[in-house]
Amino acid sequence: MKLAELRTHARELEAKLPYQEMADSPGVKHYIDWNKYEGYTSPAPSLIETAGPCEVLILNGRLAGVGPCSGVEAYPSDDAPMRLLQLDNKMNAMIAARLPEVVYVKLRGMPEAPILIKISAKGEKAFAAAYLFLEVTPRFAGDVAVIAESEGDVLNATLIEGAVGEGATLNLSLASISGGGPHYVSARFAIDNSAAILARSLAAYGSMNSLTEEYFVEGAKSSVEAVGLEVGKGRSRIHHYVSVVNDGEYGKGKIRLMAISKDEAWVVQRALGRITKRGRWSESVAEGVTYIASKSAVAITQPILYIDTGDVEGARHAAADASLDEERAFYLRARGFSEGELSELVALSLIDQYASSLSEGLSKLLSPYIERLKY
């Protein structure tokens, strides 16, 4: 679909569609506070910056630069594929109506370094809309971090669509890290035969930070192993949703999310594993761990499984509280740690668990952001 056609269609839908059809649960009206996305009416300015080696830089929705790197190709386009993404809610329509261009990134072979795709938003009260289409060609092998970040009170609204080719091995990090304003990042990936994705997502800070990632394992003998971390502090509000749908035989889908909620923050994590009728002999795991670091903080975990066939390799879901029990707390207090230090130790433990799950390449790209989470 041509971008001009998409914008026109999106503007029509923006006035008609709700943000979401129904409340998420009887107990919580909406996990996403949609009011936080209102009021961002300023056009996102055009900006010029230089991309580093093996970096694709997207500024306020436009491709600003591509650093030298073998196996990486990036270019702006007037065509919107819309293969997996849909204009099925008001927010997606609002983004599509404001897109300056579609950024295509194609990855081949085995790049010599980890690849950083930075989607940056700047501009006071601006609505920065971006659309990234990521094509991972067959038998690609490498590390890729897609980081949505912002400076100041700006809305970073990003749609990501991906296709992972047959036999590819992808260490992927989707990160949404706010500098104060709201973020909305929605990603959908289609995965071909015998491909493997190690997904390492991160959502941190922001007045409303919603990160959604959906993996459709369409090919046989493919796998997605997702480990995610959410960190809220101050009055930040975070919603992180990860789903892995096994729609091919002998697949594996594993999700483990870890949440840290401090001060008056509000964090919700949702992990959905599904095995369809076509996904026979697959395995699905969904796990959530939360740590509430203050009396005013909130953290909710919802691991869910949908199993449509009786022929499965395995399926399980679990929820856990990372807080110290009295015995462990006494052990640490007896060794000189204060109550305040105990809380920080638990938070650091979850951050370290996430950091230790990263490949060497992703660790290099994400370490500056992870260090900020520790303070």
> What is the structural class?
alpha/beta
Strand content: over 45%
Instruction: Tally the beta strands.
Output: 20
Average of pLDDT: 93
The coarse silhouette is globular
Ordered list of secondary-structure elements with their pairings:
Layout: H1 3-14, E1 42-43, E2 55-59, E3 62-66, E4 72-77, H2 90-97, E5 102-107, E6 115-122, E7 126-136, E8 141-151, E9 155-164, E10 169-177, E11 183-191, E12 196-204, E13 209-217, E14 223-232, E15 237-246, E16 252-261, E17 266-275, E18 282-292, E19 298-307, E20 312-321, H3 326-333, H4 339-356, H5 360-373
Parallel strand pairs: 1-7, 2-6, 5-7, 6-8, 7-9, 8-10, 9-11, 10-12, 11-13, 12-14, 13-15, 14-16, 15-17, 16-18, 17-19, 18-20
Antiparallel strand pairs: 2-3, 4-5
Helix pairs in contact: 1-2
